[in-house]
């Protein structure tokens, strides 16, 4: 099917950027074959005359999104009405077996374990994911990890937005080879649209994707600089870990713990997150999230590729698993609740933009 010849200004400029729906994923920037776009102030900026190829509109996760078409592309079918958090093959709890990973990981350390396993086994040459800024503590930034140590340095969760697609582009430019991609649901959507459009330069570099459960991201200036530093009086450099378990939990370098009700930090969430209908990264090969668990990660195996990678990691002892038992049904109930809440909020937000 030919790509509709429409300009950036007519599509993303008017319907996504100007309306505040742009997540700043940078997919349009890396996909523009004429380098008309640059990434500035967390969004695309037109820096030269648009050549009207229409590609940017086709890869943007917020422009005319079509979940059924992407589901058909990824899974060979559309979801059933009963599949409220997307299509999947199996769901379980998992955790790393590595003590080294446990020291730095978030929850069960599943993402880090899978990436390091795949790297050691030659299944990937590296991974595009997020790490922490060298100059700004707790700021998430895109990272291309090509070694075990680099993957370990990126372990843990940063609750500010990172355009990991830019790290993926770096890997392609450097001809790093096959890459794993780790990102939020919106970034997984974007990467799938790249694959659906058959932009081979990028599509051929994808080995597998890991999607992260995501309710929302937070504004760095608001949450880190204003709330943590000014309201709580805690220097960002003194915070060694942030987690969300019903509350936002800050682990302080001196061993102290600060717990903050989520309602207090809601005002610092990114506005564009309200338009996202996907909580559990429904288009990823593997989806992972803490969902209130301690020392374990809820893991959803969605595709044949994801199942292949995970079973190999399990067989080699990189991760251990346990099934969802009857007493753990609260996890599924919570997953259903969060997924439904995200869809309903997105529907209301998008309706208000019309």
Account of the protein in words:
The chain is an alpha+beta fold and 354 residues long. The chain folds into three domains: 9-59, Alpha-Beta Plaits; 88-215 and 277-353; 220-267, Nuclear Transport Factor 2, Chain: A (Roll), CATH 3.10.450. Helices cover 36% and strands 20% of the residues. The protein has an eight-stranded mixed sheet with strand order 5-4-6-7-11-12-3-13, sandwiched between helices. The longest helix is centred in the C-terminal third of the chain and has 25 residues, at 329-353. It is globular and about 55 Å long.
Q: Mind sketching the topology for me?
A:
Layout lengths: L8 H9 L9 H5 L5 E4 L2 E4 L8 H5 L7 H9 L14 E7 L2 H4 L7 H11 L5 E7 L7 E6 L2 H6 L11 H9 L5 E5 L1 H13 L2 H4 L2 E7 L7 H12 L7 E6 L2 E6 L4 E5 H4 L20 E4 L7 E5 L2 H12 L3 E5 L5 H25 L1
Parallel strand pairs: 4-6, 6-7, 7-11
Antiparallel strand pairs: 1-2, 3-12, 3-13, 4-5, 8-9, 9-10, 11-12
What does this entry show, briefly?
The protein has 14 helices and 13 strands. The mean pLDDT is 94.
Tally of distinct domains: 3
- From the N-terminal CA to the C-terminal CA, the straight-line distance is 28 Å
Count of distinct strands: 13
**How much is the radius of gyration in Å?**
19 Å
Q: Summarize the biggest pleated sheet.
A: 8 strands, mixed
Element order, helices and strands? HHEEHHEHHEEHHEHHEHEEEHEEHEH
Considering DSSP H and I runs of 4 or more, what fraction of the residues is helical?
A: 25-40%
Oligomerization status of the protein chains: single chain
For the residues shown, what is the average pLDDT?
94
Sheet with the most strands: spatial strand order? 5-4-6-7-11-12-3-13
Number of helical segments? Answer: 14
Low-pLDDT segments: none
* Apparent shape: globular
Beta-strand share of residues: 15-25%
The helix-and-strand class reads: alpha+beta
């Amino acid at each position: 099917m030919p790509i509709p010849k429409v300009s950036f200004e007519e599509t993303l400029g008017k319907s996504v950027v100007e309306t505040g729906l742009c997540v700043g994923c940078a997919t349009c920037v890396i996909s523009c074959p004429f380098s008309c776009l640059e990434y500035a102030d967390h969004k695309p900026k037109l820096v030269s005359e648009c050549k009207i190829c229409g590609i940017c509109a086709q890869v943007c996760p917020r422009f005319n999104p079509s979940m059924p078409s992407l589901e058909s592309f990824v899974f060979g079918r559309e979801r059933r009405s009963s599949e409220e958090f997307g299509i999947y093959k199996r769901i379980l709890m998992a955790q790393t077996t590595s003590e080294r990973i446990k020291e730095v990981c978030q929850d069960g350390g599943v993402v880090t374990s899978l990436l390091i396993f795949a790297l050691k086994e030659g299944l990937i040459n590296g991974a595009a994911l997020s790490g922490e800024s060298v100059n700004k503590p707790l700021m998430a930034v895109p990272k291309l990890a090509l070694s075990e140590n680099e993957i370990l340095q990126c372990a843990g969760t940063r609750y500010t937005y990172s355009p990991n697609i830019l790290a993926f582009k770096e890997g392609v430019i450097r001809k790093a080879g096959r890459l794993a991609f780790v990102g939020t649901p919106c970034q997984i959507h974007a990467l799938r649209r790249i694959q659906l459009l058959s932009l081979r330069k990028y599509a051929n570099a994808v080995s597998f994707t890991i999607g992260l459960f995501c309710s929302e991201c937070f504004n760095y200036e608001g949450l880190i600089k204003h709330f943590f530093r000014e309201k709580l009086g805690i220097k960002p450099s003194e915070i060694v870990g942030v987690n969300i378990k019903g509350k936002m939990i800050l682990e302080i370098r001196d061993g102290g713990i600060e717990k903050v009700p989520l309602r207090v930090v809601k005002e610092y969430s990114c506005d564009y997150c309200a338009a996202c209908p996907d909580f559990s990264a429904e288009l990823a090969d593997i989806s992972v999230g803490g969902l209130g668990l301690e020392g374990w990660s809820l893991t959803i195996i969605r595709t044949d590729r994801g199942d292949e990678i995970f079973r190999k990691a399990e067989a080699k002892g990189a991760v251990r698993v346990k099934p969802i038992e009857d007493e753990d049904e609260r996890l599924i109930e919570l997953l259903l609740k969060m997924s439904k809440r995200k869809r309903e909020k997105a529907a209301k937000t998008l309706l208000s933009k019309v």
